[in-house]
Specification:
By secondary structure, this protein is an alpha/beta fold. It has nine helices and nine strands. It has one domain: 3-Layer(aba) Sandwich (Rossmann fold). Strand 5 and strand 6 form a beta hairpin.
């Protein structure tokens, strides 16, 4: 831990592309030894709906996601942790502070009525891997965020949330088209009002849905209806960005890996669903450099 009292907090939320599903890390990239300047909330010590105190420890790539038990993936969280520590170990020319990471995501879980991010999901915590895990994600995340002020105060440190990244929305295209727009508006208002309250209105980045092939696979009603509903989800993200000063929308097609009119557009694994390690690594580096630039 550095001597500085100031530190940064990064939050990653959502579903499978936030988990890093389907992109396991190589043995050489796995973070096994706890990091000295990057910290996390381990699942073993912090996965509770009745959590009363946050227990931070040196970051590793195993057990880092507070929700689903899928470890050692090229998630943005793991990629950012590796890049952040590497810059500090290399002399810290960017003047990076210690970083604290909160990662909460479960694959195939949207925000509409039947999913675990829905604000009215009954209180439940059944840990497990994809397909078995059942956690009321909204009250759980809110509980964690509500403890941040007290946690850093106890450590005698000041903190700044440098970004809340929302990587979700894919499964919500399965909701009825006629009511989807209003439903999303109501749900996201509830979710982000609570997050802004506890996190003091931090920069919040919504990741646009960018892969039509994903929608085709999920929606049996056909391509046009599928694209329409994907557009509704993205329109809600745009609305949030237009009406909340701390919100913005990120489009992965700005990545250098993007190749239009090809299978996966250069962004996705062979399943045309999950982002490649190269894309997530690029996003992590972008987060790091943009944060450093904002402080200089």
């Amino acid at each position: 831990m550095s001597n500085s009292k100031k530190c940064a907090v990064f939050v990653l939320l959502g579903q499978s592309n936030a988990v890093g599903h389907g992109i396991p890390m190589t043995e050489g990239d796995r973070i096994i030894m706890p990091m000295k300047n990057v910290f996390w909330l381990s699942r073993a010590e912090n996965q509770s709906l009745e959590l009363e105190k946050l227990r931070w420890s040196g970051y590793t790539s195993g057990g880092m996601n507070l929700a689903e038990e899928q470890d050692h993936t090229y998630s943005i969280a793991n990629c950012l942790a590796a890049a952040w520590q590497a810059h500090i170990d290399g002399g810290n020319a960017l003047g990076l502070p210690d970083l604290y990471i909160i990662h909460i995501a479960i694959g195939a879980q949207g925000v509409t009525r039947k999913y675990l991010w829905h604000p009215e999901t009954e209180p439940i915590l059944v840990p497990g891997v994809l397909g078995t895990v059942k956690i009321s994600l909204f009250p759980f995340a809110t509980r964690v965020f509500s403890l941040l002020d007290g946690s850093f105060s106890e450590m005698g440190r000041e903190y700044e949330v440098i970004g809340v990244h929302w990587r979700g929305g894919e499964n919500d295209v399965l909701a009825p088209t006629e009511t989807l727009a209003e439903e999303l508006k109501s749900i996201y208002t509830t979710i982000f009002d609570a997050f802004d309250k506890h996190l003091h209105a931090p920069p919040t980045i919504l990741h646009r849905l960018v892969c039509p092939d994903r929608m085709h696979d999920m929606d049996p009603t056909g391509e046009q209806e599928c694209l329409k509903k994907m557009g509704i989800v993205n329109a809600e993200f745009d609305r949030l960005a237009a009406t909340r000063e701390n919100f913005s929308v990120f489009d992965a097609t700005t990545a250098p890996q993007f190749v239009p009119n090809t299978c996966g557009n250069g962004l996705f694994m062979q399943d045309n669903v999950h982002f490649t390690p190269a894309v997530n690594t690029w996003i992590a580096e972008k987060i790091l450099t943009e944060y450093a630039a904002s402080k200089n």
